[in-house]
Amino acid sequence: MESVAPTRIIEWIPYNNFQNIKYLTKGGVSKIYTAEWTDGPYDKWDSRNQQLKRFGKLKVILKTLENVEGANVSWFDEAKSHLITSNKSLGVVKCFGLTINPNRKYMLVLQKMDVDLRSYLRHNHNKLTWKMRINIICDIIKAFYEIHKWNTIHRDLHSGNILYLQSANLWCISDFGFSGPADKPLTNVYGNLPYIAPEILFRKDYSFASDIY
């Protein structure tokens, strides 16, 4: 799978490479955990030794993919397209790869972000200047420009899966393409009702326009 940088390489990661795994929350159709990845992701190219170097210990998110064993081929095709998009677009939360836990549940290994937009606005509403608000909007627009440029649809955008990385001062899109159970058709409706475009409720196809709604 091609990547724009070493930090965007997607790999299979043995589960025993994770330590201090702790349950964090349940979201939609998945369970989310925090963990420490002992050697971390690829970080840079060592030209002298002609090899990729790893970052070292890093806190990450482990997200279970429910009912993958019953998924149909179209879901896996869709999952592949989203993983490819996530490693090419800087506006999408990094997906480092996949792992499988002792219960035989597949898990996404994701970059740990600092806060979601919903919580951020709740706690900082009175502190935000118009310039700061516009910068947030610009980050979201840039992310969706990249996502749609790769002909991919998110399907479940809301303020809970727009996440902030303070070290980079960047807002990114998460929960990318895994908003519904793997064993259910992609035509089923999932998501938070206030954010679902009206045409989707009438069983129309998801589209770029329904993402923007």
Automatic annotation (TrEMBL):
Keywords: ATP-binding, Kinase, Nucleotide-binding, Transferase. SUPFAM superfamilies: Protein kinase-like (PK-like). Residues 18-213 form the Protein kinase domain. Transmembrane segments: none annotated. It comes from the Eukaryota. GO terms for molecular function: ATP binding; protein kinase activity. GO terms for cellular component: plasma membrane. The keyword ATP-binding applies. InterPro entries: Kinase-like_dom_sf, Prot_kinase_dom, Ser-Thr/Tyr_kinase_cat_dom. This is Kinase-like protein. It comes from Rhizophagus irregularis.
